[in-house]
């Protein structure tokens, strides 16, 4: 059944009230572009339900009338998945008013939350019971738990705690036909049948709208030590990483690769930052160890660094001796993202290869860039302990918009071809959405494509939910 779109919006207003349905351009502008300014869209309207029943009601209505919809969280996703196109034919369902902490159980190390809770607020709530929800990422002040689930977010601590997939115990989801699936289990072990909850992790809103989640907590770390180190090469970084994995009793919680250019970008974006070490080094590692209980982390870290220096892996380093100093070191990691954003349109990737292959991959890809566009700047950084690299490329500043578009597309294709040789992933972190779709589909085998399409059709036979994301329309 189809009805005119304006009529459906009026029905929604009558059910949710004026504040629950946004239609005018001023009110919509906040929901129509992403952090990077890459994704732009014009929705039919933005609806802002407060409860799971309201979400179910909206979805049922849309499904009955074949109206397309797209769930939206904190709009920090980087592949355009949460944004409609410009035809005003999709309804954005924003979860921002569903932000209740439903329950916190420090004995079970779990908490149940609305999907619209902002990650930072979930972490703060866990902290009140001496627990931590260990997902940490640069966008945590804006992104929502539902968005984190839909993108299977990772971040700075994946090497210790895993991605979102490993941090979710149960889910509540409104399916594309408006039915509510209550899978809010708080069990740590449960082997009954297929794991339905896991299907929604990384599904980018294409299988249903996550409205609630039971999250896994860990004991809050009683002590944390942070170090920023200067190293001569990516190969030295990987060698230090293997020493750290073995020498830190599995207490390593972050191990970030940062090139010199990113330290400069961070200082450009945040002028209060000064060069962290006495000299400039080609590569840096920002690492952290964290623990509860009686263990001497300082001694452990110092021993690792001595070992690294003896082997000529570590050339210099700064160890934070207070929380303020640690935050200052992390400020480089955060500000370098803003520094890149200020450089305008550039190639942003989030690829992965086996950790042991990182030095070769970085060398191969850097040679490719210098052959194709010698004046472009490579900035390869990332969560090296997960094999996840942001191999980004800044074109020369005087490149016109059209030249930039052509150059970046060419460089991306060449980079992905090198990745294929390493059996790497073109999306280790941000998902497929719309922007990675062509590259993703080109690499899917017929069997994989058939299975993926079968799953989508089972959940959403009419194709009303996030149509055209991951899989084509
Ligand atoms: C500065 C910065 C740093 C970042 N660092 C990282 C990082 O380290 N690791 C990482 O993995 N990502 C990172 N990201 C990407 C981004 O923050 C994550 O993808 C995040 O999980 C998106 O959450 P969101 O609430 O903003 O979702 P949105 O951007 O609103 O949506 C993302 C996708 O999820 C879907 N969706 C949103 N909410 C729901 C829901 N309730 N139910 C079903 N589908 C839904 C949307 O339709 C869309 O397809 C970073 C982004 C920025 C801007």
Automatic annotation (TrEMBL):
FAD-binding PCMH-type domain ranges (all copies): 39-220
Keyword terms: FAD, Flavoprotein
A GO MF label: FAD binding
Protein name in UniProt: FAD/FMN-containing dehydrogenase
Family: Belongs to the FAD-binding oxidoreductase/transferase type 4 family.
GO terms classed as biological process: respiratory electron transport chain
Annotated InterPro entries: FAD-bd_oxidored_4_C, FAD-bd_PCMH, FAD-bd_PCMH-like_sf, FAD-bd_PCMH_sub2, FAD-linked_Oxase-like_C, FAD-oxidored/transferase_4, Oxid_FAD_bind_N, Vanillyl_alc_oxidase_C-sub2
